[in-house]
Amino acid sequence: MNKMKQLLVILGCFLAFSCNSQKQDDEKLIGKWDGSLKDSKTGNSIEKIVLEFTKDGKFLQHLGEGKMLNTIESTYEVQNDKIITVDNETKEKAEGKYAVKNDTLTIAFEGIESKYVKVK
Description:
Blueprint (H helix, E strand, L loop, with lengths): L1 H19 L2 E2 L6 E8 L6 E9 L4 E6 L6 E10 L2 E6 L5 E9 L2 E6 L2 E7 L2
Antiparallel strand pairs: 1-5, 2-3, 2-9, 3-4, 4-5, 5-6, 6-7, 7-8, 8-9
């Protein structure tokens, strides 16, 4: 009986570990991506945006240009085909489906699909 209990504890630890390790690193995502911010009602382009994903889990959104440049800092993780971000200031969590094909990153967020081109 004691060996059975020990096996269950080991199995429980293993299961907890495997559930936890669902977040993955996606090397294709690392880097800067050029795109434009879209209006949620019309889908029209409003302003330039550069998304930056770092190896250490930082997600930076650079909005605007020149003196009007504003950077929003967040953290991110990848789970299956989703990017989950948490804003550093507001702690607001956002989730969107994504796909990387060649030099194009497509993110679907709240029904709007945005495409970004890898900055070389």
